[in-house]
Amino acid sequence: MDHLMPESYSLPTSKLKRSAITSITAAKVGLKHVGHKTRSYWLSENERELSQAEHEEKLGKLIFSALSQLRGTALKVSQLLSMEADILPASIREQLKNACYQVPPINRALVRKQVVQELGSPPAELFKGFNPQAFAAASIGQVHRAVTTNNQLVAVKIQYPGIGATIESDLKLVEHLFKTLSKVSNLMPQKQVRNLILKEMQDRLKDEIDYEIEADNLSWFKQNTNLANIVIPDVLHEYSAKRVITFEMLDGLHLDDWLATNPDQQQRNHFGQLLFDFFWYSVFQLKRINADPHPGNFLFQSNGNLGVIDFGCVRSLDEEFIESFSAMIPAVVDTFYHDQKSDALFEIYRKLKFIGDNVTLEQFEQEIRPLLVPFALWFGEAYQQETFDFKNKSPCPGRPNSENNVAIKYLNGMYSEQLCFDRAHLGLMNLLTQLGAEIKTDWQKFRN
Q1: pLDDT tens digits for 278-290?
Q2: Averaged over 359-379, what is the pLDDT?
Q3: Can you give the pLDDT at residue 347?
Q4: CA-CA distances (angstroms) from residue 54 to 41, 87, 95, 96, 410?
Q5: Phi (first) and psi of residue 145, to 5 degrees
Q6: DSSP 8-state class, residue 105
Q7: Average pLDDT of 309-313?
Q8: Boundaries of each ABC1 atypical kinase-like domain copy (predicted)?
Q9: Fewer CB atoms < 10 Å away: N or C end of the chain?
Q10: Which pLDDT tens digit goes with each residue over 415-438?
């Protein structure tokens, strides 16, 4: 959850207005590209690379400006795209990260209206106590403290008005911008990959705006998670609907607040191990992951328990995907840490659909493998020994960010769950790095 902004919420729902924002942005992107190409003609190769990075940063600002004006699910799209290290150039992702700080609150009247529409009565009648001032916010809703008639302290998450009506138009905007970017940058993936990304985003967003699905997810994880020190709140279904969800209020601190208490290394290691174990337990035992890596979705409790409080973005994992991805980890370690041949990794890349059958082992060795080195070393870093100290974790380099990147042209596709998995895994690595935890990285201990 993010801190609330002082301004009030305003969502342009008119199709004409949203289409105008999209069209103007696309036109500006096109004009900037024409100017960039003209200037680049007279530059040296080194100057062109610098100019390209500056150009993509400007494009990122334009895209973020458009998505910010649209608000709603467009902001959620910004957040998701900012975490796709393998899809967008780094300079554009950096601009889209700003979406995490553009979440304004809705006023009391709109809060009351949403609750009445969803639950049939105003908050004052439903709850013994209800704080109209939200204490936390996400990209599509905000959270209020309340007390039920039987004196239970609860969190009530209320969705911003008009969110559901904007998904298709927001994704069309992103599709249009993807198409434009593919013309102005050599760093965009092929059309079939872009379409897969958009389809996956659409499916996840439709799930995430339906709080009845989130309530079911919460209840499912609560019932099926059997891992020591992991705490998941109960859902109060009688106070929940499609756009309002109420769940047990857990105590504890969010990561930044907890770190501000100066926990010792033993505490950091303890919670780091819980985060790591919960992720891989979910992969192998539950075959479903909480695919939103935001640190605000975890509570660090004084008794040593870890609260997990947001299950709006959940992704089921196919057994075939789990096995193929699991095989990739030792193959990455062997190839890039033990300097073994690429045969095994090459076959796994085929199984994961990253490359097509038309790519030869020789092409993989000569053109793709060298460009994978920075990311592969980062990825395999924690898994090439029994324990790892995340105080020494290197930052994620993402994919090659150069006009000469040939790997992107070979990206043939992927499993649909790959995007959510990568985002969740990257989020895990970032959380462990923030903690500075030293943990046992036996990721296979939960395999059947």
Answers
A1: 999 999 999 999 9
A2: 90
A3: 95
A4: 16, 18, 12, 15, 25
A5: -85, 145
A6: P
A7: 89
A8: 102-334
A9: C
A10: 889 988 988 998 899 999 999 999
**What is the C-alpha radius of gyration for the chain, rounded to an integer number of angstroms?**
23
CATH 3.40.50.720 fits domain 107-159+210-249: no
> How many beta carbons lie within 10 A of that of residue 147, not counting itself?
15
- Where is average pLDDT lowest: 167-171, 368-372, 412-416? 167-171
The answer to whether the beta carbons of residues 426 and 85 sit under 8 Å apart is: yes
Q: Report whether 332 contacts 367 (CB < 8 A).
A: no
For residue 371, what are its two tokens?
Answer: 């460009």
pTM: 0.80
Largest CA distance in the chain: 74
Cα separation, 277 vs 227, whole angstroms: 9
Per DSSP, 164 falls in state G
Q: Which of 176, 378, 382, 416 is nearest to 275 (CA)?
A: 382
What's the token pair of residue 241?
């609907």
* Residue 281, φ and ψ in degrees, nearest 5: -65, -45
CA-to-CA distance for 300 and 258, rounded, in angstroms?
A: 7
Is residue 445 helix, strand or coil? Answer: coil
Q: Is the pLDDT of residue 83 over 60?
A: no
Question: From CA 134, how far away is CA 120, in angstroms rounded?
Answer: 20
Q: In the numeric block, which tokens belong to residue 238?
A: 């009688």
Residue whose C-alpha is closest to residue 338's, from 380, 386, 399: 380
Average of per-residue pLDDT values in the chain: 82
Residue-range domain boundaries for the chain: 15-101+166-208, 107-159+210-249, 252-448
CA atoms within 13 A on the CB side of 101: 5
